[in-house]
Design a protein that fits this description.
The chain is 42% helix and 14% strand. It is α/β, with parallel strands linked by helices. The strands form 4 sheets. The protein has a 5-stranded parallel sheet with strand order 3-6-9-1-10. Strands 2-11 form a two-stranded parallel sheet. The longest helix is centred in the last third of the chain and has 17 residues.
């Protein structure tokens, strides 16, 4: 493996992920991811693809938006994955009256000391579940922007680092639009992936009913990894090699979306795609990225960042699919 801090293959990587000595061997990182996926499937029947995409996003240091109709298990999926990792977890139920300080924290005057004490909000956790994020107004949603991009929050002019690893998993449904707010593009762009859970198959739904007739399996789910292991697996992903032809392929895909949509993929989206491809390579027990990894990750990483003209038949997903089909692999 190569050092992502000095090798241009992977671009800039923070020092916390640049130390290859602390990275797990690729086989061990792949095994860890497989254990988390299998453990999650003790609760979530079916939806193996969504679970895998969620885990790869966490390994790639990304955040995830789960978007689907009510009752298909978005929140349960997030809980099951996070319960599989022994790390701090906080849940925020987004509501119209939620304030930014309810997320980030607030300074409270201490009469005994005559000073202000900071009371951290729920964002100070390794994994933060933002449930029904589109029910909060944009001002409250924006409280997550700095946290998601920089791993820190600023309250009353003072900046505080968030615990690492840090991942936001948010849920929303676009069916019930009563008192909901559309997520601004700046926030959507900070989610590495947007996933849909979908309805289970007949066999999966029947199996799910059998598992939940008594105690729900989420109540007895035990972690199979800890925070330190996840950090080391992230270091493994960060050090996976992506050669210049692979990076050029990612760039061409992004440029295709910009040329065939009103709003195409941002450079942040290109970075997210390459990181997701690195994580996919680790799942396949490789320390180098192939174009196949890029193609496998392209749709959930890129589609939600694309806007097409009103009245056009195409969607962001169709633009990404056309890019994969039309952009040559050189």
């Amino acid at each position: 493996m190569t050092d992502a801090n000095t090798n241009p293959d992977t671009g800039p990587v923070s020092a916390s992920y640049a130390n290859v000595d602390r990275a797990l061997p690729v086989e061990d990182a792949a095994g860890l991811a497989s254990e988390i996926i299998a453990n999650t499937q003790e609760v979530i029947v079916g939806n193996g693809e969504a679970i895998t995409h969620l885990v790869t996003a966490m390994l790639a240091r990304g955040h995830v938006l789960l978007d689907d109709v009510p009752g298909v298990g978005k929140t349960m999926l997030a809980r099951a994955v996070t319960r599989s990792i022994d790390a701090s977890f906080k849940r925020v139920q987004f509501t119209p009256d939620l304030l930014p300080s309810d997320v980030t924290g607030v300074n409270v005057f201490n009469r005994k000391t005559g000073e202000f004490d900071f009371r951290p909000g729920p964002v100070f956790a390794n994994v933060v579940l933002g449930d029904e994020i589109n029910r909060a107004p944009p001002k409250t949603q924006s409280a997550l922007l700095e946290a998601m991009e920089e791993g820190q929050v600023t309250v009353d002019g003072e900046t505080r680092s968030l615990p690492q690893p840090f991942t936001v998993i948010a849920t929303q449904n676009t069916v019930d639009t009563n008192r909901t707010y559309e997520l601004p593009l700046a926030e959507l762009d900070r989610f590495a992936k947007k996933l849909e859970v979908g309805y289970p198959s007949e066999a999966s739904e029947t199996a799910m009913l059998g598992r939940t007739t008594g105690t729900h399996p989420i109540e007895t789910l035990e972690p199979v990894a800890d925070r330190a292991q996840l950090q080391r697996a992230r270091a493994t992903v960060a050090s996976v090699s992506a050669t210049e032809p692979v990076r050029e392929y990612v760039t061409r895909l992004a440029r295709y979306t910009r040329e065939h949509a009103t709003l195409g993929v941002s450079p942040r989206g290109s970075i997210a795609l390459l990181r997701a491809a690195q994580a996919r390579a680790v799942l396949e027990k490789r320390d180098y990225v192939l174009p196949d990894d890029v193609q496998e990750e392209a749709e959930p990483v890129l589609a939600h960042r694309i806007r097409v003209e009103a009245g056009r038949d195409s969607t962001g997903i169709e633009v990404v699919r056309a890019a994969i089909e039309g952009v040559p692999v050189e």
